[in-house]
Amino acid sequence: MRLLRLAAGVLNQTPLDWDGNVCNIVEAIRMARADGVSILCLPELCITGYGCEDAFHARGVHRTALQVLNEVAAEASGIIVSVGLPLMYAGGLFNTACLLIDGEIGGFVAKQHLAGDGIHYEPRWFKRWPDGIVGELDIDGKSIPIGDLIFNIDGVRIGFEICEDAWVGSRPGARHSARGADIILNPSASHFAFGKHAVRRGFVIDGSRAFHVSYVYSNLVGNESGRAIYDGDAMIASGGTLLAEGKRFSYQPVSLTCATIDVEATQMTRARMGAFEPELDGNESDVFEFSFDWPDCQLSQNPIERESWEVSREIKFEEFTRAVGLGLFDYMRKSRSRGFVVSLSGGVDSTAVVVLITYMFRRICQEIGIEGILDTIKYLGTLNAKSAEDLTSALLTTVYQATKNSSSTTRNAAEAVANEVRSSHYFFDIQTLVEQYTGMISAAIERPLTWKNDDLALQNIQARVRSPGVWMLANLQNGLLLATSNRSESAVGYATMDGDTSGGLAPLAGIDKAFLRKWMKWVETDGPENLGRVPAVSHVNAQQPTAELRPPGSHQTDEGDLMPYIILDVIERLSIRDKLMPQEVLQHMVNKFPAIDQKQMGKWIIRFFELWCRNQWKRERFAPSFHLDDENLDPKTWCRFPILSGGYQREIQQLKSELGI
Fold first, then answer.
1. Most buried of 18, 124, 276, 608 (most Cβ within 10 A)?
2. CB neighbours of 174 closer than 8 A, spacing ≥ 6?
3. 3-class DSSP assignment, residue 141
4. For residue range 118-137, what is the model confidence (pLDDT) as tens digits?
5. What are the start-end ranges of the E strands in 281-423?
6. Are 150 and 176 in contact (CB under 8 A)?
7. Three-class SS string for 536-557?
8. Dihedral sign, CA of 443, 445, 449, 454?
């Protein structure tokens, strides 16, 4: 029996924050050493941060990364640690994992499959490393191997799959297995998306079984660089059995998930498997041998720390609450903002943002406490806060901004929510400002503005007048102003630029309105596990969504202006995600909603395509948003579309002819 203790380290890193990143890496090493860990796997590119973007092209970044690597190595005696950094070799830049062995650089494994779809642009910066190729480079006068390596450390063979390497059919782990690998390390920077955890869990367990190895998977946690949220997945499996699994969405900057394995048992299991065929070509030029004094290790219980909410039937609601809350907190602290400011209209979107912040403060108080928060966000100084409610009062400001078209219903709803969550709440009457603008324009063009002739302009000026005051409040407080537009509105441009789109961050721009309405009902009746309900949202849920920009007698509603949100969201997925033409979308919609008149459905589809094409310029200007699923509309990270286009006019005319519209 040969026992080894393995650990998957989860880190909350920040691009180019050299000191902060080193601090987290060294803390993980110290925690691992104290727990008797022999092999520690840390996330992909954890030295520089994963999201450095075009800063990866700066030679100074590469030089500093190597300096930091030496700093980390000096702290890594008595343990084996994988750390990630970019590395120049043969004129190309490679995404590498460096294996430190007892404080010395053992070698660099280069990533073989680059993530180049969705929000990932790795081929923009890195070159892929070919299968089976090994090179060497000189670092401080020492020859160090680089490439597709296997490390033989006193009879224990270690191979790598770096993030995307495990998501492809031709996984490097298969070759490592044939070369006798006992342990495969997977340092990752795998962004959160709904349902993605189950996929990762599958390839970790299946990889350990199919490759006859122990498999260690580590991931980043938190909002690393602005848009992507990392859930901190950490898993260790052996021979098809999950041995340990860490907690996700943690507010801790460093955490470990550990398990003890018997390497000899793994080796003998592999030897007696009829399907295992070792590679016996006699060439082991890719295997590098090292000595290491393996510490004594005792058998121990391997904990599965999966929380009960992970198996909830409302898992998507739970993940949404935790992911966005974690993203908001990290965005606040990494931008050094003193809390949040929200223009609270009494509608679903702005209320959802306020509720998410409320849950965030509740969760962080449960996990690290008030003192832990102040220690994490030192720039806040001291706060007179003893509870999550006190934190909300100190760090969340809400404002209801009324015109003569605003109703007592929405004002009362906003006040009820603000009172329950205990935000610092203000009321602004902006009607005089609206009248001053309309009067100024009327005088300039020498005619009065009327709802019959100037509907859109009169609506938009009300939304735009709300922007300067709330921006001023955010400036005074050094707070982060949050825009409240959702993905459904983004798709059709149902938002006033420089009005309700004002803000430094749009936390809901990656989620659709139909989902938000369901989530808000859940918040009212159930709420996330251990975080409670927010009953006051009943005042919001009882309303039909409305912009309240036309006179009350018009009975304006969002769905009256557009179409039912459930219809809009399905059309969006078919046309934008699935890239179907208007006629093809109609065929799907008629099958899915047979009770709706075909001509009416056609009108909604035409309206969607016309608004989508017309409003790409708005999507280009929206504040940064969180990536939550693989149906994102953010043109900067996911869904590119020309600002100027023919607008599907031929296809729309064909559809109109077919339907007699």
1. 608
2. 210, 211
3. coil
4. 889 999 999 999 999 999 99
5. 287-290, 340-343, 396-402
6. yes
7. HHHHHHCCCCCCCCCCHHHCCC
8. negative
Q: What share of the chain is helix, strand, coil (3-state, %, to 5)?
A: 45, 20, 40
Continuous segment of H or E residues that includes residue 81: strand 80-89
Q: How far apart are CA 272 and CA 615, in angstroms?
A: 62
Whether the pLDDT of residue 166 is over 90: the answer is yes
Here the tokens at position 633 are 């509309």
* pLDDT of 563 higher than 70: yes
Beta bridge partners of 160: 185
- DSSP for 561-590, written as a single string: HS--HHHHHHHHIIIIIS---HHHHHHHHH
Dihedral in degrees, nearest 10, Cα atoms 220, 221, 224, 230:
90
Long-range CB contacts (within 8 A, 24+) of 583-588: 583/651, 583/654, 583/655, 583/658, 586/655
Beta carbons of 98 and 74 less than 8 angstroms apart? no
Give percent of the chain with pLDDT exceeding 70: 99
**Helix 388-395, helix 348-376: angle, nearest 10:** 110
Q: Are 502 and 470 in contact (CB under 8 A)?
A: yes
Q: What is the DSSP string of 172-230?
A: HHHHHHHTT-SEEEEE------TTHHHHHHHHHHHHHHHTTSEEEEE-BEEESSSS-EE
DSSP-derived pairing of the beta strands 214-218 and 235-238: antiparallel
Q: Which residues pair with 41 in a beta bridge?
A: 8, 82
Asked whether 259 and 244 are in contact (CB, 8 A), the reply is: yes
Per the CB < 8 A criterion, the answer to whether 91 and 65 are in contact is: no
- Record the pTM: 0.94
CA atoms within 13 A on the CB side of 654: 9
Question: Nearest-CA neighbor of 420 among 328, 538, 323?
Answer: 538
Distance CA 260, CA 268 (A): 17
The SS3 call for residue 606 is helix
Three-state secondary structure call for residue 65 = helix
Q: Is the pLDDT of residue 633 over 80?
A: yes
Query: What length does the chain have?
Result: 661
Nearest residue to 232 via CA among 303, 327, 166: 327
Residues 6+ apart with CB under 8 A from 321: 356, 359, 519, 528, 531
Contacts of 513 by beta carbon, 8 Å cutoff, 6+ apart: 348, 349, 486, 487, 488, 489, 545, 558, 565, 568, 569
- Alpha-carbon radius of gyration of the chain: 28
pLDDT greater than 70 at residue 527: yes
Tokens standing for residue 9: 């380290």
Q: What is the arithmetic mean of pLDDT over 306-312?
A: 83
CA dihedral sign, ordered 581, 583, 586, 591: negative
- Beta carbons within 10 angstroms of residue 130's beta carbon: 10
